[in-house]
Amino acid sequence: MADGDKIAPMELDEAKARELEEQFDSEIRFRPLAPLAARLVGALLVALSIFHYYTAGFGLLSEVFHRGIHLSFVLGLIFLVFPFAKKGYHEPARSTLVRPLGIPIFDWALAVGAVVAVLHVPFIPLDDLAFRVGNPTTTDVVLGGILILVLLEATRRSVGWPLPIIAVLFMAYSLYGPSMPGILVHPGASFSQLVNHLYLTSQGIYGIALGVVATYVFHFVLFGVFATRIGLGQLFLDCAAWVAGRFAGGPAKVSIFGSALFGMISGSSVANTVTVGSLTIPAMIRLGYKRQFAAAVEAASSTGGQITPPIMGAAAFLMIEFLNLPYTTIILAAIIPAFMHFFGVLIQVHFEAKRTGLRGMTREEMPDLTEAFKRDWPTVIPLVVLIGVLLSGYTPYLAAFWGITLCVLVGLINPRRRMSLKEVYEGLRDGAKYALAVGAAAATVGIIVGVVTLTGVGFKISYIVTTTAAQMAAFVGTILPVDLFGPQALTLLFTLIMTGIVCILMGCGIPTTANYIIMATIAAPTLGMLGVEPIVAHFFVFYYGVLADITPPVALAAYAAAGMAGADPFRTGNTAFRLGLGKVLVPFVFVFSPSLLLVTADFTWGNFLVAFIGCTLGITCLGAALSGFMLVRTKAWENVLLIVAAILLVAPELTSSLIGVALIMPVLLRQISGYRTGAVAL
Hints:
Oligomer: single chain
Number of helices: 29
Function: Part of the tripartite ATP-independent periplasmic (TRAP) transport system.
Transmembrane segments: 36-56, 68-85, 105-123, 129-152, 159-176, 204-227, 327-351, 380-413, 434-455, 489-507, 513-532, 539-561, 581-601, 608-629, 641-669
Membrane topology: Multi-pass membrane protein
Helix content: over 70%
GO molecular function, one term: transmembrane transporter activity
Structural class: mainly alpha
Radius of gyration: 26 Å
GO cellular component, one term: plasma membrane
């Protein structure tokens, strides 16, 4: 890039951001609708948002009824807006006898069938329902079977094939238990018993997963939509540019800081990518970054949105229910690991900028922060109030209620960025869009969780994993040159490795929320058997599940960024995964050093400082090795030493950390010498 070239001001066009999000996020990409059908769907989406907004502020309905209304809206709308096949995305169809309002009559039938099947259970009197659990009527079995079928089809349409296939395999396991091999054998269940468990109890479709989406997630997603629309996203980007823009590779660092701040109000990796990336990716390309690297920086940064407090996506709210902990505890535990993720991306971006000699933004290219706050300071009020209500001990959905209310009020009365009533309507409509795919996925995961509780397969899998890990540990323990790890630590290490690999593989085909629920149900108890605290185990599977958004072959955030940058999607995904490798190390650190989460039982400041320093140094070493640069270009032998040192620095033993520091010293000495003499290592 020539010195005279200018980087355009980073001004967020929310309409363009929404257009990009719909283009790259298949979970909110609806088929084109005829005008009347679009108005009907829009009204239903707004009605769903108003229902959740009202109940958040004035009291939730009974558990089954609240979840039933939510799921009936979700499934009914999915069949109206998602076509049977991808080729259904074409021009709006005309209304005919077999396509009322341009939508196939088969889809109308599925929508009606889904609503009837869902609402059957909430309208059963509680006393009667208690009697029928374990003794379902023919109507219960028929409608339960219909719900399972339409739910699987709705999930296939909105999030793809993998999750429904996994659910079908689990149901087959429950039905054919006596035919299973070895330890997996069980007495089996009849179809009637399976439907009874999944349909009439709170351990199946109407379980915790659906409840969390209907009670917490929806409200915070709606808050994020309105917070962005009133200008809080723009203010965050201006702050990020002012903090980081002046340094080497400025726009890339703005991408990281902007994604971290925007992640506070958006728990979606793709939404974060397209909103922040619409500004930072072109700026990075103009500065001189390769297209795939620019896209990868934004994708890797944006996946941090799901792990950045206070809004961390659905998984954080699920932890409340799984662990029976206040949300403030989850937020506090997430602070340091989130910092480590962004630090890991930042250090690689910094080394890349230094290696290629990329400049920062000039004073003229940076925003006027004073003017930005004069324009947008009211947009901070809803976020401050939301956090204040959360920290005061009130329920998360009440905090979201006040956050949404203040967003709308600020938007309507702020003279510098006024929001029209039409935009309020669009915010309610767009906020509900996010509920469809995640709602169907959560209900389908309820099938998987229900089979686990019905058959006890979770304990069987835990036994298989821990036994295999112990055998691997025994073998490796005989060939280690020094006794750095005891047998128990090695067993835990191999269990973590296997769990992490499964999380990543599962994440290649299913959404991060579904991934977390499945792994929390199956893998978290495995880690608990090895003495890992529940909150630590849940954070481990949560963090590895989030990696799926930048892990090829299905890396939604990376592919969205690649589409915006005009880069190769697969290469972008590989680069984004490399930039996010710090997130691979961090979960191992807080398992072996739980003090990093701040809220564990054995927390001490001494343990925290040792873990924090070791993790920071380890991520820095890994970043230098992967970038091929520290103070000057690194040599091959230096990269090897840095990678080994990184692993040792995050290990649980003080001895291993000291060995890691010793390995760094010759690299550091050679780097300082090269920097002083101006040498460039090849």
